Amino acid sequence: MIGWLERHMLPCAYKSIFGIDCPGCGFQRSFIALLKGDFAHSFILYPATVPLLLTGLFLIVDSRYHFKNSKRIRRTLYILLGLIVIVSYSFKMYQLASS
């Protein structure tokens, strides 16, 4: 199954048009590395993968059980996830500009 996923990854339209990675580039490869059990490589490819998956899991569980402070938890998760994406993308673009 992992081999099938590797052969059928979706191309990034943003990268095709502008020639640079988008803030989500690397997620598919990172997810596949995570499925293979390579957490370190997954993190290097896209640091937001695990927090994104955990946020998605929380949203699914919360839709079923309706936690008491779910609105505050969701807002906090969204902010943390956004910060991780912004910082990692900024770092990636800084490295690209430096090379």
Describe this structure in words.
The chain is mainly α and 99 residues long. It has one domain (2-98). It has six helices and no strands. The protein has helices at residues 2-7, 13-18, 27-35, 39-45, 49-65, 70-98. The chain starts with a helix and ends with a helix.
Could you give a short account of the major beta sheet? none
- Sum up the overall morphology in one term: globular
β-sheet strand percentage: under 5%
Category from helices, strands and their pairing: mainly alpha
Q: Any idea how many domains?
A: 1
Q: How many β-strand stretches? A: 0
Helix and strand pattern: HHHHHH
Distance between the termini: 36 Å
Topology:
Blueprint: H1 2-7, H2 13-18, H3 27-35, H4 39-45, H5 49-65, H6 70-98
Helix pairs in contact: 3-4, 5-6
Key structural traits:
single chain; 99 residues; mainly alpha; 75% helix; globular
Short account of what is shown:
It is built from six helices and no strands. The protein is an all-alpha fold.
